[in-house]
User: What shape does this take?
Amino acid sequence: MSCEARGHGMSGVKRITVDEGQWAQAQQAAERLRQVNRELPGMIEALRREQQAAADRVAAELTARQDAVDRALTGLSEQARRIEARASQRLRAQAAQLRQVKEAADQERRETREILTDQERRFEQGLAHEREERELQVRELRDEVAALGGDRERAVSLAAELAADAQRVAAAIAAELPHERYAPGRLAELTRRLAIAEGNVRARLGEAALVQAQEAYLQLSELRAEVELRDREWQEAWLAADRAVTMLREQIRVNANPPALNATGAPAEGFTLDVDYWSEGELSRLEETAARLTAMVADPARTASAQELRHVAEHEVPELDEALTEVVARAQARLLASQVRVNVAEIVVTALEEATGYTWEEGQATYASGDQRRAFYSKLRHLDSSEIVVEVAPDGNGEACVLRILSYDAGVPDDEERVRRAHAVADTLREHGLQAGLPAADSQEADPRLVDFDALRHPPQQAGRAAAARAEPGRV
Assistant: This one.
């Protein structure tokens, strides 16, 4: 790290910026550890079984619903039975294709975005095929009307048959399909049109009744297929979102207390890293976001759309997963930085003892408020009651540090001596491999409260949680 010298003033505070190259190595090691945790075989296998069970439940529900619709459509006319049978075959074939795609995705471990894109494309193809089928059926029925050649009795009879078929399809949709979720108000509208057609059948209006009955039946048949397709689309999007969110929550759990790493990036045996503590609550905020997504996916009212669920799986969860990697790495780097602050303070105290008549006394070292994330302080005393406080504080995002040497002279301050001390300390730090900038005078005088180590080491009331976390055995 390149530091800029800011000149020598007469302040009682001398500042030296210190950086430690090993922190970057530790952060990289934390990222590698996070990658290992992301791919833990046991966790992935357990989640795969859980998701397979969920997929099987969804498939069973969809099959049972389709069976119920088929039963509700018994009693249709010959022509309508053929139309609905073909629709059922297409829907079941598509369901089988979706299962095959899911199995291939599991085997190949394809990316979520690729899988969801495939699903959306196949859904649009399914809708397009259904519309083509309806256009074909419209032409066939129009040909039948033309073939009647003005036979009103035959037209009325055929209209009555189609109206009855339409009523059975409407009843099946109302009883078995979530039509209000995917096509709100559509069934009610088509039912009103069907009632008009039935009225014209009773009035024996012939071709008018037949055209209206045909239109009502075909639109109801199309509604049936569209609702089933949209429900299958939603279920697929839900499975993808549920899998992604479940995996994210498990990753957060596993990475909440990974092995702590030493300065070389190797695990420190017997110690785990309290990521939430060292990340200043960033992990808790990730957990809160994951909980919000979980509630959205698990909502029994199913208010989230397929598009929203896809966005969760395709964008929100991957972004949070990357954020988790950064949080773990940052927490590890901050832990190492905290340890380095102690080491730097020890080096500085030794340098000051050798260069001055000051001595360090047992117990005169503490973190601010007893919090290892904060500045570390150590104090030396002179026989004339003068004191020097060494402050090694985190800088920036907590992964580098700033050293301040605060002088509390009992007599007349010797500014030249202070500058000499600061240069001696900077030279010693560089001898130990630490990149230390040239000393600079701080604009403010030394804070007199920092000499009271009894007050300095006691945490305020609100820091109880952090103190409790540090007190837990084996956790740093």
